[in-house]
Design brief:
alpha+beta, eight-stranded mixed β-sheet, 15 helices, 32% strand, disordered N terminus, disordered C terminus
Length: 981
Amino acid sequence: MIQVNPAGETRMKGAHARGCLGRLWIGTLIAVLLTACGGGGGGGGPDNQAPIADAGLSRTAIAGDFVLLDGSGSRDPDGTIVRWRWQQSSGPTVLLDSPNSVQTGFTAPAVNQTTELRFTLTVEDDRGATGSSSVGITVEQAPATFSISGTVKASSSQAADGDTNDPARPAFPNDTAATAQVIPNPITLGGYVNEPGTGAPGRSQLSGDTEDFFRVDLLAGQTVTMLVADFREADADLYLYDSTGTTILDASTAMGEIESLTIAEDGSYLVNASIFFGATNYLLAIGAGSEVSTDSADIVPWEVVLKYREAEESSKPPADRTAAIVRRMAMEQRAGGRGRARLMSLRSSGLNAQERHGRLGAATGKGALMKDPGLRSRWETLLAVKSLRRDPAVEYAEPNYRLRASLVPDDESFPLQWHYPLIDLPAAWDTTSGSSDVVVAVVDTGILAGHPDLAGQLVPGYDFVRDPASAGDGDGIDPDPEDPGNPLEPTASTYHGTHVGGTVAAAGNNGRGVAGVAWSSRIMPLRALGGGGSGTSYDVNQAIRYAAGLANDSGTVPDKPATIINLSLGGGGFSQADQSLLQQVRAAGVLVVAAAGNEASTLPAYPASYEGVISVSAVDLQQRITRYSNTGAFVDVAAPGGDNGVDLNGDGYADGVLSTGGSGTGAGSSFAYTFISGTSMATPHVSGVLALMKSVNPALAPDDIDALLAQGALTDDLGATGRDDQYGHGLINAQRAVFAAIEAAGGSPADDPRLVASASTLSFAIASSGLDLELSNGGRGELTLLSLETSAPWLQVTPQDVDAAGLGLYRVLVNRDGLAAGVYSATISARSSVNDLVVRALLSVGNEADTADVGLVYILLYDVTLDEPVGQVIASPESGDYRFRFDGVPAGQYQLIAGSDADNDLFICDAGEACGAWLTIDQPILVELDRDLSDLDFPIEYLISIPSVSESAAGTRTATPGRSVPRSSRQFAIPVSSRDD
């Protein structure tokens, strides 16, 4: 960033002053030695010495500059100078200002060529003696100047908080439900909130602006997302109230950059941006449902996982500081110990005012507005975590997440397909079926140890389910990892761990049942998920520590650590405790494989997204990514996950993954083989293939596996060539992987025709009536569009440039005639010979002039040569237009940059503020000024990025937040001058 420079500010605001005086010091000084023209004069007397006149140095001026002639250097050796007289002796005549004063001045005349003007100064002393001196002023032609004008345009889908910290913008307070600011839908809005006494000087620094309320009509399935700009120094939360403002219906209280809520049903609501601590800009985005990760992961209410800093634990006496934290937060320790994470419980009732404020801070009063006990317990737990994170004695604090097996419900929304030949496994068995020296730890719901296809396949494990109520076996942690099923809901007993373990290493070539991928290797069953396939992050971490031979709550370690750890589970948010542990496990040479998750999301899921973990997505029988499988930048490899909703191979059974399992629960249970589908089922395929690789090459380290995977040596390439966000490096190929343990091998992509659209949602803001939609074949192979329909009469689709298969460009038009103000939703349904898709259309009906407003905008003329702004226009919107004009600008190269300054820190284009540049902010184009330029129009917008989420969900302070202006050879934001001009 370029700091605000008062001198630069003067240059920017004082153009007229510079025109009068500034040129006096610009240009090359021509030093001319002048001598006094002596001579006595009337009444001087024989003893009087004549005064010595000094008209100053000759110099150069620019036409139009004000030139000052200064005779103050004149002197009289034996008296006093009493009169001065300036006269022009040559050159174009100019008018001298105060010619009978010690100083005079004139405006340099316009000239066609360089011209010298000479002036004579005559001085007279108190005895009538005189002296004279002359000076030359060389006048050069003035450079040509031009004007630049145009309009900065805001979109009608943008708005601004009514009471930011910028004092130059009139404030319209929206601090209460009664004064809520009415906004349209969809909308992107820039705002600012701060605690009293925080943030830059401005309208709200001293008094604070802790709450912003917005009234908006919302549709079911829409999301309200808030991006916290200064999340490293501040924390803001998002609340959803009913239309009366008396009940909080939902809350997002994450610790980082993103807060997000999904609307359950159509209605009118109040959306509330609330500061938890500090001061920050924010962006509020309201629109169609979108994937944004926040604190929506399931947690154990009233439980916190924390670790004290080592210095606090080693202090004398060590308990003083930590005991004070325990008292202040009204909590007690349940598990863990010195030097590692501790499981703490929060007292849920009977808190005094001091304890409640210690947990909730300024948000204490919101608790009374939460009628849902579950919402309130979750909210108070998360705010307690945030309060603990601010304590310098705490290294980290986080919720105790509930983790669940990544099982896909038996539902048509999650179709799956699977088969062993899909990954060339039978061919790999020609080389190896594994080794008993290779052990795969399955951290899951436990195991049915008596299953006939698991006999002889197990090494000793452990049960780490701490809560007896969840464990279902009558106790807490113990050495028996047997899965008792779900005694409360017998029909929900999936024996998930048994199914996963069987895919890894169920006995093969034994004439019955099924075979595991690496059926000669061994399984270490570790129970960390209890009833219903759920558990906590703390318990899972204890199982991981045990598998890797690290200290854990069992007080013991296995005789031999696991070679591979399989984590067919997920559901928690980012955890520093998890990440640190997994890095420690990897450093010990243990491979970790995890399920990508089953939310059909492109967002990171944990533990799959941690560094050093191999993340697995799921494919169906046709080698296509399943509709339930998570995808994204964190995916490393794909494997069969299955589909329990179809029978595409015609064998009479649903195309799920078949493996060892059970039915019933407790004494009524029986061993079985079951079809289950999900990324949980894909993950043990990869773990089993890695076991085959380690069987033929035990020296392979995690870095070696990563390198082979990146080279494509372990997979068949699917999707886009090379790594992509659906399949990672491709579909795991067992034979290639086994051969790659010895030598490299290659692969090729498969045909995958599918109908895709250029957008999943088209949003018609108030000023928009038509948008383009492109339908295309997103894969290879034959595909034909069969039909295209809309669900509402106000929505029409017209072909523009399509081929014989119906693929190409379509124009989507909306008609607002007869529609009342509000927001509407409809769909465009496309059916093809391969697949169907639905594009959602959102329509806003209202007054454009009321919404196209991003606040006060500062438009800067940036001199590229000087590398600083040389002009500034402060503009208010006129129906979304911010007009500007710069006059008297010398020829040269300039950039035009505009932005708001909601936090009043004298920088525009900060995160959370609007920004624009001619022609685009991505690549600002130079203005070559050699003539008057007009209609230099460009947009201004809120730039939304979305930072790295691990940094967001955990509120870590290591990531650089996304800024609204891209980096170039110099850093923006741009400084603005003070507002008093």
